[in-house]
Predict the structure.
Amino acid sequence: MATRIPLSRSIAAHTVLIAYTLISLFPVFVILINSFKSRKAIFSDPLAIPTPETFDLIGYATVLKQGDFFQYFLNSMIVTCSSLFFILLFGAMAAFALSEYRFKANTLTGLYLALGIMIPIRLGTVAILQLMVAGGLVNTRTALVLVYTAQGLPLAVFILAEFMKQVSDDLKNAGRIDGLSEYRIFFTLVLPLIRPAMATVAVFSLIPIWNDLWFPLILAPAEEVKTITLGSQIFIGQFVTNWNAVLSALSLAIIPVLVLYLIFSRQLIRGITAGAVK
Amino acid sequence: MAAKAFRWHIPVFLAPAVLVYTAIMIIPLFGTLNLSLYNLEGQNRIFVGLANFRTLFGDPRWSASFWNALGNNAWFFMVHMLVQNPIGVLLAAILSSPRLRFAAAYRTAIFVPAILSFVIVGFVWKLILSPIWGIAPGMLDWVGLKSLYLPWLGKEQYALTTLALVSVWQFVGIPMMLIYAALLNIPEEVLEAAEMDGVTGASQFWKIKLPLILPSIGIISILTFVGNFNAFDLIYVAQGALAGPDFATDILGTFLYRTFFGFQLQLGDAHMGATIATAMFGIILLGVCIYLFAIQTRLRRYQF
C-alpha cells in the first residue's frame, strides 16, 4: 500500500493523544514524586522532581512499619486470577451455548443471565454473608472468588455472546463435517478466534475485582486474607494528617497495580491484535 | 424431528455459569427484594405490602432525599454520556488509524486511571483539588487563570459535576478499549474498498466505521447507565456517606448506604434500605429494557 498519512493529520493525532496521556498520568505522577519528598518540599513546590536535598523516605518508613503489603498483594493476586479463570471459562461456555444453538429456553436463559449485568451484587450482601457463614467460608479467599465469579459472569456472557455471533458459521460447519465434537469445536475453533474479546472481558472483570473494597471488608477482613485495596484503605485512613504517609501509602497501592497492568497489557494488546489483524 | 437425540452438550456448556450465578447472586438478591415488603413492628417482622414504597415516594422526609439523589444521579449519567463516551470514541478512532507510531504506549497510558481503585482516585483528586496543597490553584496560576480557582469539591453547585468529571477521567479508557477492539475487527477489505471509492479520513469514519461499531457504542451506553446508577464508591471516598456539601453529591448508592447502615444519629434500617435497593433495581431494569427492546433490536449486525 502506497497511501501515506498526511503529515498534518499525523501531527494533529499525536497532539490529541499526548494531551490526553498527560491528563491521564499527571495525577499519578504528582503523587509518586511527592511521596519521595520531605514534608516541607511537598508543600513548597509540589510539582518539582525530588532532588538530593528534598529526597526523603520518611513516609515509606512510617507505612512499611505496619502491616504486610506483600501478603496483601499476594492475596489480591490469588483472588483476582482465580476469579478471572472461572469467569472466562464458564462465561465463554455459556456464551457459546447461547449464541450457537437454538433450543427452547435460549432467550429465557440469556435474559436470566443478563439480569446480573444490571443488578449490583452488593444489594444481596446480607444474604451472601449469611450463606458464607453457613458454609464456613468467612475469612477465606474462596468466598471472594465465588462472589467475584458470580459478579463477573453476566457481563462476560453478554460480551462474549455478542462477539461469538460474528464467528463465521462456515468454519464451525466445516468442523462438524470433519467430525469434530461440539466440545472440540468450542475449544479448538471458537475459543482461539474470540481471544480479543476474551482479553477485553478479562480487563473489564479484573478491574472491579482488584479494586473492590466492599466484599473484602465484609467477607474477608482478617489479616491473613486481606486484599491490597482493603489494606491501603486502612493505611490511608490512619494517616489522614500525615501527608508523607498518605502519599506513600497511595504510591504503594498504585505501584503494584501499575506493574501488574504493564505486564498484562502486553498480553492484552497481543490478544487484541492477534485476533483482529487477519 | 422428534427422534433427534437430546443435545447433552447444551446443558453441559450452560451449567457451571448458571449454577454459580444462581446460588451467589440471584437467590441473595431475591432475599433483598423480599425484605422490602416487610417492616418491623416492635420486635416482630411483619408483612406490610407496598407500605415502604408509599413512605419512600410519599413521606416528605424520605421523598425529598430520594428525588434529590435520583436527580443528581441523572446528571452524573449525563456528564458521562456527553463527555466520557465521545472522548472514548475519538481516542479509539485516532488510535486505530493505520501505522500510527507509539499507539501501544498511548493506549497503555490512557487506560492507567481505569485500573486504579476508587480509594486511590478519590484521595488523589481530593489532594490535587485541595486548597491546602495548592496544586490546582498553582497550575491555574501558571496559565494566568488563578482567579478561576475555587474549592470545587466544597461548593454545592460544582461538587457533583467535579466528581462526575473525576469519574470520567478514571473510566474513559473503557469505552476507548471496547471501541478500539471493534474498530480493529473491521476487515481490511472493507476499508480498502472504501478507499477505492475515494472515501477516506473523517468521511470514512462517519460513513463506514461508525455504522459498523454502533453495536459496541450501544453496549457502552448501557454499561455506562448501569455503572452510574450503581455508583457509590467514588462519592463515598471523596465526600463520605453524607455526600456533602449539604447532600449536593448524594446519588442513589450513597442514599442506599446511609439508609441501610445508618449514619450519625440515625439507625440503620434494613427494610427501607431494601426498598431503596428495589427502587434502584426498577430504574435500572427500565433503562435496560429500553436498550434491549428499543435500541438493540434496531441495530444491524454484520458477519465478516
About this structure: Chain B touches chain A through 91 residues (CB under 8 Å). The radius of gyration of chain B is 24 Å. Residues 60-95 of chain B form the longest helix (36 residues).
